[in-house]
Amino acid sequence: MRHLIQTTDLDKDEINIILNSAKNYLKDDVAQTLKGKMAITIFFENSTRTLSSFEIALKRLGASVVRLDVSKSSTAKGESISDTAANLNAMKPNAIIIRHKNAGAGDHLSKYVSCPIINGGDGAHAHPTQALLDLFTIQNHFKTTLEGKRIAIIGDIKNSRVANSNIELLGRYGMKITLVAPPHFLPKTDLPTTSDITSIIDSVDVLMSLRTQIERHDTQTYGSLKDYAHNFCITKELIRDKNIIILHPGPVNRNIDIEDEVLKDSRCKVLEQVTNGVAVRMAVMEHFILNH
Ligand code: ASP
C-alpha cells in the first residue's frame, strides 16, 4: 500500500507523471476517473485552502467525499487517533486525507488502514502536496528546467512543514536554495542562510514567503510581528522591477509577510498557487487511488 506522507515517497518519474496530468486538469473538461470512489478528510488543524482543495479535486473527478467533523468525532471523547482510523477504514474508503498538529500522525495512521493515507500537513514535518503545487507553479512559470534557478525561502522556516517539503523537492529539481530568516527561525541546515534579505534580492529568481507559525511556538522568541515585517516583509521597494516571482502557501499575513501592493502585482503567484493546488491534488488523488 502506497501512502503520501512526505515528498520522498514519490520518485522523480512519478512526480513528472503527476505534474503532467495536473497540466491537463487545469482545463475545465475532465473525465470522471474517480466515479464510485470515496475519500474521507479528517483535519485536526485549521485549514482553508488544503481541505477545500482536496475536496474539490476529488469531486471534480467524480469521487464522493466524507468530511469527518473532528470537533464532533470520538477523538474528542478520548478515542485514540489509531482507533478512529481503524474504524474509518472499516467503512472502506479509497483514501484518507489527514492533517494533524503532530509530526508523524499520517505515518502512524497508515499502519491501521488498508487504503492510501495522504498527508495534508503534519506539525512542522511535511506538507507534500503543497510542495508539489509549488514546484508545478514554478515550472509553469519558467517553462524550462529548474536546474540552477535560485530561490529564497523567507520566514519561520524552522517551524514550517511547507519549507521542509520544499527544501527536499525543489532541491531535487536542482534549485539553489537560500534560507532567509532571523536566527531563531532558522533550522539546523547545510544550506546557505542569511538574515539580510537585501543581500539576496539581486540574485534570486523566486521568493517564497512563509507565515510566522505562532501556533507552534512555546514561547515568543521574537519581538513583535511588526519588527519582523520591518526586516522580512516582501515590499515593492524590495522587489522594484526585478524579474522574479513571489510565492506564499497562505494564509498570508498582509503587510507582515507580503505588502498589499505586492499581493496585487502580477509577479505574485499566490492565487495561481491555489488554482494549481486543485489540479495537482486531482492528479495526486488519481495516482494514489487508481494505482495503489
Ligand atoms: N497553509 C500552510 C500549512 O498548512 C502554511 C501555513 O499555515 O502557514 O502549513
Automatic annotation (TrEMBL):
| Start and end residues of each Aspartate/ornithine carbamoyltransferase carbamoyl-P binding domain | 2-139
Q: Start and end of every Aspartate/ornithine carbamoyltransferase Asp/Orn-binding domain?
A: 147-287
The record's keywords, sorted A to Z, are:
Pyrimidine biosynthesis, Transferase
Q: Which InterPro entries match?
A: Asp/Orn_carbamoyltranf_P-bd (IPR006132), Asp/Orn_carbamoylTrfase (IPR006130), Asp/Orn_carbamoylTrfase_sf (IPR036901), Asp_carbamoyltransf (IPR002082), Asp_carbamoyltransf_Asp/Orn-bd (IPR006131)
Q: An example Gene Ontology cellular component term from the record?
A: cytosol
Q: GO biological process: what's one of them?
A: 'de novo' pyrimidine nucleobase biosynthetic process
Give the pathway listed in the UniProt entry for this protein: Pyrimidine metabolism; UMP biosynthesis via de novo pathway; (S)-dihydroorotate from bicarbonate: step 2/3
Q: Name one GO molecular function term.
A: aspartate carbamoyltransferase activity
- Binding positions (carbamoyl phosphate): 49-50, 99, 127, 130, 250-251
Q: What does this protein do?
A: Catalyzes the condensation of carbamoyl phosphate and aspartate to form carbamoyl aspartate and inorganic phosphate, the committed step in the de novo pyrimidine nucleotide biosynthesis pathway.
Question: What's the family?
Answer: Belongs to the aspartate/ornithine carbamoyltransferase superfamily. ATCase family.
Which named protein is this?
A: Aspartate carbamoyltransferase
